[in-house]
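so my prof wants the structure for this chain in the tokens format not the other one, which i didnt know existed until like an hour ago. anyway here's the sequence
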Amino acid sequence: MPEINALCLRAARGAGLGWGMAEDCAHAATWLAARDFDWADTVLYQLETSGGRQFTPKVRRWDTVTPACALHVGVAFSDFATLPEGPGSDGVCVGQVSGPLMIVPFAARASAVLGTALEITLDGAPWLHLSGDNLRIQGIGLMETRIAEVSVTPAPLDPTPPTQAALQSATISRHHLSRLDELALKMTVPSSATSAKGAGADDD
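here's what i got, hopefully its the right format
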């Protein structure tokens, strides 16, 4: 898991995210990988297909201009969990979200902070039940959804064991690895002509 965290942190930075958001992206990737979800595709979708960032957390229903980036929505949802703009007792609709699987690690964090389970629906269809890090999939056919209206509602705590890969293999295809590496390389600062001229065997 440390390798996944490091790779996704570099890829997120290479994609232009600030350090804080890049660290949140890496956290989400390792959380998803530990539960055998398609973490690499989820991260790449966020970094390569940027959703909008114009959303305003409000009580019961957030204002979302266009399908919003799930990473940014997830971080905001976690931050607002205990505030009136959070799920509260009646739930909240966070609007149209691009790549909703990325929200799940942050919803799990919010569930733990609130001490309650959370039900997540996509376009009104039951999707996931979260009790902290315990997760139960209710809509397996929705796992690859790219854009949907996401709603989150408090629910009774669930003793179901966490969904987790037996060996935490966290597999990744060569294609996905290549694309993440390509983004990570953009984090490297190219040497200036002056520094390149001064480099060599004569350096101290």
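also thought this was worth mentioning. Confidence is low (pLDDT under 50) at residues 165-169, 191-204.
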